[in-house]
């Protein structure tokens, strides 16, 4: 009888704890949404009163334009083109940044030789390279992929480089004394230590890949969201411009959510209270 009472009280406590956790999450979600809702309400009221609608469309007009674009199918070819460019540019840039950052981080000699050149090229405004990439790769998809890759590469490169260079040398020496070879050092010491920096670079690179693709499409393109926004601007269609921006925001939010899920999966070993690169 006592065990039954104990089990019932334990179940009730667990249910209350779950309810309390759900209420806390719901409250946090509402607090996070509140500034956005206030901004949208003020925007809806101000458009047409404080500023002419030809400059800033109402959120309701933007929503109607979005519905029209998806219902008619007009936006799908642009979405497909921009999505391909974003994925390819991001993957190529991240891969190059991880390989380059790890190679220079592991080899002080290579770092002394190549780091000044990487830093010099990093100082060049990447947007200024868009016309050059169009000359090299044409007005098709690959000029945008190249521009996005370059913008992503440097962010990931410097994060990985810093992560590898920051590995505790005593830990490396101890692992070597225990008989670890270079492959074991890579997989069991350097990559786990650099993983938080890799993920930080990947998260930071998401909006920059979007910037690279859209700037390339603004410069010269036959299809894509950048071209759609440019044409909407040229025809004085602010609702179309904002609709394109909302779609780009959706790209960034989805990519950020996927990167966050990947980070939680890969970095489950990390102590929650330990400092990471995101605390810097």
Q: What's the layout of helices and strands?
A:
Layout: H1 2-46, H2 59-72, H3 76-106, H4 108-122, H5 130-137, H6 141-165, H7 169-177, H8 182-219, H9 225-234, H10 238-266
Task: Provide a brief overview of the structure.
The chain is an all-alpha fold and 280 residues long. The protein contains ten helices and no strands. The longest helix has 45 residues, at 2-46.
Model description:
This protein is an all-alpha fold. It has one domain: Orthogonal Bundle (MetI-like fold), CATH 1.10.3720.10. Helix content is 80%, strand content 0%. The chain has ten helices and no strands. It has helices spanning 2-46, 59-72, 76-106, 108-122, 130-137, 141-165, 169-177, 182-219, 225-234, 238-266. Helix 3 runs antiparallel to helix 8.
């Amino acid at each position: 009888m006592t065990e039954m009472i104990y089990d019932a009280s334990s179940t009730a406590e667990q249910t209350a704890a779950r309810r309390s956790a759900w209420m806390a999450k719901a409250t946090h979600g509402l607090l996070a949404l509140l500034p956005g809702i206030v901004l949208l309400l003020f925007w809806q009221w101000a458009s047409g009163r404080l500023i002419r609608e030809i400059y800033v469309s109402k959120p309701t007009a933007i929503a109607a334009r979005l519905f029209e674009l998806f219902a008619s199918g007009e936006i799908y070819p642009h979405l497909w083109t921009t999505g391909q460019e974003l994925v390819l540019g991001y993957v190529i840039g991240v891969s190059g940044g991880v390989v380059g950052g790890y190679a220079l981080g592991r080899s002080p000699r290579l770092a002394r030789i190549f780091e000044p050149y990487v830093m010099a090229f990093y100082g060049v405004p990447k947007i200024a390279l868009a016309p050059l990439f169009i000359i090299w790769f044409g007005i098709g998809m690959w000029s945008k992929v190249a521009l996005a890759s370059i913008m992503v590469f440097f962010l990931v490169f410097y994060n990985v480089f810093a992560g590898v260079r920051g590995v505790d040398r005593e830990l490396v020496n101890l692992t070597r004394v225990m008989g670890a070879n270079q492959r074991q050092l890579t997989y069991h010491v350097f990559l786990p230590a650099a993983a938080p920096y890799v993920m930080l670079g990947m998260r930071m690179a998401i909006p920059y890949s979007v910037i690279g693709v859209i700037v390339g499409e603004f410069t010269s393109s036959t299809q894509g969201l950048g071209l759609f926004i440019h044409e909407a601007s040229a025809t004085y269609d602010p609702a179309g411009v904002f609709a394109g921006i909302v779609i780009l925001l959706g790209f960034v939010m989805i990519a950020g959510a996927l990167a966050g899920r990947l980070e939680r999966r890969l970095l489950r070993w990390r102590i929650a209270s330990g400092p990471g690169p995101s605390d810097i």
